[in-house]
Amino acid sequence: MFIQKTLTTISKLKQCKKLQNEVSLSHLIRAKFTTAALPKPDGVSTFEGENYAEFNWDELGFGFVPTDFMYTMKCCDGGEFSQGNLNRYGNIELSPSAGILNYGQGVFEGLKAYRREDERVLLFRPEENAKRLKKGAERMCMPSPTIEQFVNAVKETAIANKRWVPPPGKGSMYIRPLLMGTGNVLGIGPAPEYTFIIYSSPVNSYHNHEGGLNLVVEDKLYRAVTSGTGGVKAVTNYAPIYKAKIDAKAKGYADVVFLDAATGNYIEEGSTSNIFIVKDNIIATPPTNGTILPGITRKSIIEIALDSGYQVTERAVSLEELLDADEVFLTGTAVVLNPIASVTVPYKGIRTEYRTGAETVSQKLYETLTGIQSGRIEDTKGWTVEIE
C-alpha cells in the first residue's frame, strides 16, 4: 500500500513538473505574442479597414461559433494555479473519473468583448466576474485563479480571438471562463486537480422578440433553495431548469419566472436572468440572499438607475406585485436587458401585459448600459477595460 501511494505521488509530481515546463515555454513564447503578430488563419475578410473572420455578421445569432484560441491553466494537488497558456481551440481530454463528470464540481462565468466604432475592443467589468468565480469556487470547495490571473487570462483570450469580435452594432464576443475538477475521484469529495479554461464565441441577441418577451410563471419546479448553490454560478444549477424552460417554449413562451421554494409567493429569477419590476418609476428587484445569482449586469443597472435619479429597492417582490407592475425587465450577460411584454400565471388564469418601447424606464436604462459597454457613452465609472 505504501509503495503504491508513493508511486502515485511520484507520478503526479512528474505530471505537474511537465505541466510547469510546458507553461514556462509557453510564457517565453507569449512574451513576443502581440496583437500585430497574431497568427492569421485562412479566411480573413476586411470590414471597414479591420481584419475580421470570414463570417456573415448579419446572420449572427446566439449559438456557439468556435473561435481560434482558448486559454488553459492548471492547479495540481492543492497548490496554486500555474501560469496559463493559449492553445488552438479544440477538444480536451478528461478521465471518466474526473470530478466534473461524476459530481458536477465546476463553476463558470460569462462576460463579453465589444467593438467600438473606432475599432478598439472593450471588456465590461472583468474583475467582477473574477470575484464572483472566486466566491463560487469557495462554495464548491475548489481553488481558483487570483483576480489578476483571471483578468489577464480573459484579456489574452480576447486579444487572440479579436477578429471574432463582431463589427459595431452586429453583436459581441461572449467569453466563457470555466473552472472544473479534472482530477480522478471515486468517493464523494473534492478533486485532486483542477483546470481553468477560457473559450469564446461571437453572439448576437439571446432573445430575439421584438416588442418584449412573454413569460410564464413556474409553480411546480424550483430553481434554488435556501443555503443551496443558487447564489453562485455552479455548473449544477442549470440542467435542472431545462424542463421548465422547454415546457414553456413548447407553449409559446420565451422564458419562465421561478418562485421561491419556501413559500411560492415571491419571484426570484428567470432561467438565466435577474428580474426587475417598475411601478410609478420606482424600481424593485429581489435581493441576492443566497438563492439568487448576484448578476454583474444587475449590479450595473442598479447603479445606472440610481445615477439617473430613480429609486431602487432590493427586497422580496411578491407575485402580486409582479402582476401589478407598470414595467418588467430581465438582466444578464447574455440577455443584456430585455423588456417583458407579458407574464402569464396559468394556475391563476391570469395574464398581465406591461409597457415596452420608447420612453420606458427599461429602454432608457438599456441605452445607457449598452452605450457604456460599446464606448458610445463615456465610461466615468471605470467599468470598461480596453484590450490591445
TrEMBL record:
Keywords: Amino-acid biosynthesis, Aminotransferase, Branched-chain amino acid biosynthesis, Pyridoxal phosphate, Transferase
One Pfam family named in its UniProt record: Aminotran_4
CDD domains from the UniProt entry: BCAT_beta_family
UniProt-listed PROSITE patterns: AA_TRANSFER_CLASS_4 (PS00770)
Modified residues (N6-(pyridoxal phosphate)lysine): 233
Pathway where this protein functions: Amino-acid biosynthesis; L-leucine biosynthesis; L-leucine from 3-methyl-2-oxobutanoate: step 4/4; Amino-acid biosynthesis; L-isoleucine biosynthesis; L-isoleucine from 2-oxobutanoate: step 4/4; Amino-acid biosynthesis; L-valine biosynthesis; L-valine from pyruvate: step 4/4
Gene3D superfamilies cross-referenced by the UniProt entry: 3.30.470.10, D-amino Acid Aminotransferase, subunit A, domain 2
Cofactor: pyridoxal 5'-phosphate
GO BP annotation list: amino acid biosynthetic process; branched-chain amino acid biosynthetic process
SUPFAM superfamilies: D-aminoacid aminotransferase-like PLP-dependent enzymes
Catalyses which reaction(s): L-isoleucine + 2-oxoglutarate = (S)-3-methyl-2-oxopentanoate + L-glutamate; L-leucine + 2-oxoglutarate = 4-methyl-2-oxopentanoate + L-glutamate; L-valine + 2-oxoglutarate = 3-methyl-2-oxobutanoate + L-glutamate
EC assignment: 2.6.1.42
Top enzyme category: transferase
Single Gene Ontology MF annotation: branched-chain-amino-acid transaminase activity
PANTHER family (alphabetical): AMINO ACID AMINOTRANSFERASE, BRANCHED-CHAIN-AMINO-ACID AMINOTRANSFERASE 7-RELATED
Protein family per UniProt: Belongs to the class-IV pyridoxal-phosphate-dependent aminotransferase family.
Name of this chain's protein: Branched-chain-amino-acid aminotransferase
Native source species: Quillaja saponaria (Soap bark tree)
